[in-house]
Amino acid sequence: MTETFFAPKSLTDIDWTAWQAKDPATLTFVIKNKKILLIRKKRGLGAGKINGPGGRQEPGETRLECAVREVQEELCITPLNMQYRGECRFQFVDGYSIHVHLFTATDYEGTPTETDEAIPLWFNLDAIPYEEMWEDDKVWLPLMLQGKACSGRYLFDNDTMLDYQLE
Ligand SMILES: Nc1ncnc2c1[nH]c(=O)n2[C@H]1C[C@H](O)[C@@H](COP(=O)(O)OP(=O)(O)OP(=O)(O)O)O1
C-alpha cells in the first residue's frame, strides 16, 4: 500500500506525538577562546551554507559517537568535553524529516583541516554569520550559546522556514 503524505502548512498540521524522523543526526559546536568553529559545507543537505560540523547517525552508533565521528570526518579533529545541549526536529513539506541532536565541545585534538566535506571557519561569538546559515539557526543558536534551553520544532519548504516553535 502506498503511504500518502499531506504537505503540512504549519506545525499544528503535524501529529508530533507520532512524529518520527527519517534520519537522526547531530551538530557539534566547538567553542574555545570566545570563538566558535563552524564549517562551510561542501556537500549533503545544506551544501554551501555555514553550519556546525555534523551529519546523519549510522546504524549501531550512539548520538555521541555520531557527533564525534562527524567532526573527525569533516574537520580531522577530535572534539573534547562534549556536552549534550538539545534537539531540533525538522519537518520538510516534501515529507523528509531529520532529528538533529546538538552538542558543544570546549576543546579538540588535532588541527582543523579542510576536507572534501567541509572548510573550517572560526568566528567571534558576537559575529556569527546567520545570514549564511540555515534560517532556524538564529532562533536557537544564541540560546544555546547562553546556556539556555534551545530545543525546538521547525517546518521547512526547501530552504525556507515556514513555521517554528521552541519547546
Ligand atoms: N535546518 C537546519 N538547521 C541547521 N542544521 C541543519 C538543518 N537541517 C539539517 O539537516 N541540518 C544539519 C543536520 C546535519 O548535521 C546536517 C545534514 O546532514 P548531512 O551532512 O547531509 O549528512 P551526512 O551523513 O554527513 O551526509 P553525507 O554528505 O556524508 O552523505 O545538516
UniProtKB/TrEMBL annotation:
Family recorded in the similarity comment: Belongs to the Nudix hydrolase family.
Enzyme Commission number(s) of this protein: 3.6.1.56
Protein name, UniProt field: Oxidized purine nucleoside triphosphate hydrolase
Keywords: Hydrolase, Magnesium, Metal-binding
Biological role: Oxidized purine nucleoside triphosphate hydrolase which is a prominent sanitizer of the oxidized nucleotide pool. Catalyzes the hydrolysis of 2-oxo-dATP (2-hydroxy-dATP) into 2-oxo-dAMP. Also has a significant hydrolase activity toward 2-oxo-ATP, 8-oxo-dGTP and 8-oxo-dATP. Through the hydrolysis of oxidized purine nucleoside triphosphates, prevents their incorporation into DNA and the subsequent transversions A:T to C:G and G:C to T:A. Also catalyzes the hydrolysis of methylated purine nucleoside triphosphate preventing their integration into DNA.
Signal peptide location: none
The keyword Heme belongs to this UniProt entry's keyword annotation: no
Record field: catalytic activity: O(6)-methyl-dGTP + H2O = O(6)-methyl-dGMP + diphosphate + H(+); 8-oxo-dGTP + H2O = 8-oxo-dGMP + diphosphate + H(+); 2-oxo-ATP + H2O = 2-oxo-AMP + diphosphate + H(+); 2-oxo-dATP + H2O = 2-oxo-dAMP + diphosphate + H(+)
Cofactor: Mg(2+)
Positions of the Nudix hydrolase domain: 21-146
Subunit architecture: Monomer.
Sections of the chain in a coiled coil: none
Record Gene3D superfamilies: Nucleoside Triphosphate Pyrophosphohydrolase
Uppermost EC category: hydrolase
